[in-house]
Amino acid sequence: MPKVTLKVLANKLGLSTSTVSKALKDYSDINEETKLKVQELAKSLNYTPNAFAQGLRNQESKIVGVIIPSMVHYFFSNIIDGILKEAEERNYMVVLMQSNEDYDLEKKQVDVLLSKGVDGIIISLANKTRDFSHLAKIIDYNIPLILVDKIAKTINCSKVLIDDRKASYDAVNYLIQKGYKRIAHFRGDLNPQNSIDRFLGYKKALLDNNIEFDPSLVYVCDNNSDFSDGYENAEKLIADHGNNVDALFTVNDLLAIGAINYFNENNIKIPERIAVFGFSNWFMSSVISPSLSSIEQNGTKMGEKSAQILFQEIESKHKQKPIEFQKVIIDTELIIRKSC
Amino acid sequence: MPKVTLKVLANKLGLSTSTVSKALKDYSDINEETKLKVQELAKSLNYTPNAFAQGLRNQESKIVGVIIPSMVHYFFSNIIDGILKEAEERNYMVVLMQSNEDYDLEKKQVDVLLSKGVDGIIISLANKTRDFSHLAKIIDYNIPLILVDKIAKTINCSKVLIDDRKASYDAVNYLIQKGYKRIAHFRGDLNPQNSIDRFLGYKKALLDNNIEFDPSLVYVCDNNSDFSDGYENAEKLIADHGNNVDALFTVNDLLAIGAINYFNENNIKIPERIAVFGFSNWFMSSVISPSLSSIEQNGTKMGEKSAQILFQEIESKHKQKPIEFQKVIIDTELIIRKSC
Question: What are the entry keywords (chains A, B) (predicted)?
């Protein structure tokens, strides 16, 4: 079946395309009889407007772009879920891209989205991203940009994040109140802001409780999406410190689950011999044994909020109203389970 | 910064837009000096072609649409991961939509994708979808359509799936070889083809091994994305059959994990008292206790293959070559762990 266009409808009815277009949009300068005729034919031929052409005329594409580091990842799935829900309500389409934590790919994806003329962009940065000129380019193009969770502090745009420092402070403080004193930390990559802030929260909780910070208890997990990294560092931790460690706080749940597997296999009792506290509250954390205490990061809410702000900014732009950038901190909560 | 268009470039150089356009595309009827001048200016002004306008002229959008039932779902995340990789390589963008297992929403999303003029569509159907006229519409529009995993048998298009019946036959047969005889089944919704086929594979394995099929051992789990459904049905199973059941085969891992939680909490030993076998091999199945035997479904491979076929069909269509629909069965494998 050939595509039914405005022109096809116009030819069949002996009208101009502009009359047909106005009739479909229910303009008041078209008489009711014509409107009815056009609308009935459009319906019977299953006419659907060509939205690309429409977007081109309106200078809006009704498409927004989203770039995340990784797709197969519980937290990011939740963020996308939140974004899709908000977009659906507003009849926006979402183009999804994953950077695979690769800066060059992320940069290329931004170019593609700009070249396609999307109305706005939401990004959660790759861990390896240290240069932000691609973000500056989005702003130069006057395209609304929202950074979510993995942000660049120096870029002037709206941001949706959690208070990583406070969240990990709370977790470590909880462990200390429970009597744990030699608390190890599996931190993430040295670069991303989250992993820095989570480390700083850990350190501050120790200092505020008069516990000496021991750098030898901190392990850098480069590949922090991989739970075998948690397993291997747990092995190192016990080799290095033996009985002189009684708790472990990890930058994410995957590392904690890897560590729990090592402890379980080696009959190192959790939480009697060592307590474990994760971060992100992945679904699986509630079903492993022992169940893992963690920090609920509210990914869906972060996604929803990012999209809400993006659509506000797109609307303000169309109305030529000034945009005030927002920094929204989504609440986290401690989820206490059997691992501590 | 205002957007740099062909017209801006043309005005600055005193050339026509068609000359500038041809120069950028390296056409042979434009002299080298002009090409160089145009290309340098385009570069210095960060010109990026308006791909929507381009798509409109070329009758291709370089955008494909993907509709999945649910985003926060390990298997579908893997499918999308595979699709995104293939699209990235070919410079296609992917518009992602989730139907939330809702037929009306799925239908509306198809209309949106058609109205946007996407080049092709990949769908994994909602469990509730019983009417396929929206799929027929895609075919009427002459837009390549690939169905993945959750398919409609009667729709004439390419399909990528696994052999659900064989996979569950293999799993149940494995349990029988291990000596289990009273094998319960937590099946999915009555409607989707996968859940029907997995049930039929279960039944056939029993019959081929001369074990009587007992319908009272089959529990229908409507809400099969929820692991509490597995928990509750495990409770019912034990209440109904007491010691007269020695194994459980579930239509997905979430149900199995819910059941394992119930058994663990009630001190029903796995696999000594009851063995458990799942389906899909979610990441968490390897980290729970006891680790869960399951069927690896190769979601990423399914996504990759769907996208490969889609792009082949799009290319064939552009070259006006005939399209031969493919039905690709992706291999599954039994993953044996401690739960049986």
Answer: DNA-binding, Transcription, Transcription regulation
Structure tokens at A177: 């109140």
- Helices (H) then strands (E): counts for chain A: 12, 12
CB contact under 8 A, A77 and B72: yes
Q: What is the pLDDT of residues B192-248, one digit of tens each?
A: 888 999 999 999 999 999 999 999 999 999 875 578 899 999 999 999 999 999 999
Q: Residues A46, B59: contact at Cβ < 8 Å? A: no
Phi, psi of A124 (to 5 degrees): -115, 115
**To which H or E segment does residue B297 belong?**
none
H or E element in which residue A200 lies: helix A193-208
Q: Does the pLDDT value for residue B126 go beyond 70?
A: yes
Does the CB of B173 have a partner CB in chain A at under 8 Å? no
Q: Are the beta carbons of A88 and B77 separated by less than 8 Å?
A: no
Both B244 and B315 in one domain: the answer is no
Q: What Rg, from alpha-carbon coordinates, does chain B have? A: 26
B45 touches chain A (CB under 8 A): no
A 10 A CB-CB count for B86 gives 20
Residues of chain A whose pLDDT is less than 70? 1-3, 49-59, 224-225
Chain A nearest-CA distance from B48, in A, is: 5
Question: What are the pLDDT digits (tens) for B252-270?
Answer: 999 999 999 999 989 999 9
- Which of A63, A95, A96 is the best substitution to test chain B (most B C-beta atoms within 10 A)? A96
Give the type of residue at B325: F
Residue A117 to chain B, least CA–CA distance (Å): 7
The answer as to whether B1 is a domain residue is: no
Element of type H or E holding B160: strand B158-162
**Is the Cβ–Cβ distance between B67 and B106 less than 8 Å?**
yes
Cis amide prior to B2 (ω within 30 degrees): no
Largest CA distance in chain B: 89
- CB count within 10 Å of CB A11 equals 12
Residue A256: inside a domain: yes
**Are A69 and A156 members of one domain?**
yes
Radius of gyration (Cα) for chain A, nearest Å? 26
Three-class SS state of B62 = coil
> In terms of residue numbers, what domain contains B67?
58-162+299-332
In a 13 Å sphere around the CA of B191, the CA atoms on its Cβ side amount to 15
Same domain, B288 and B219: yes
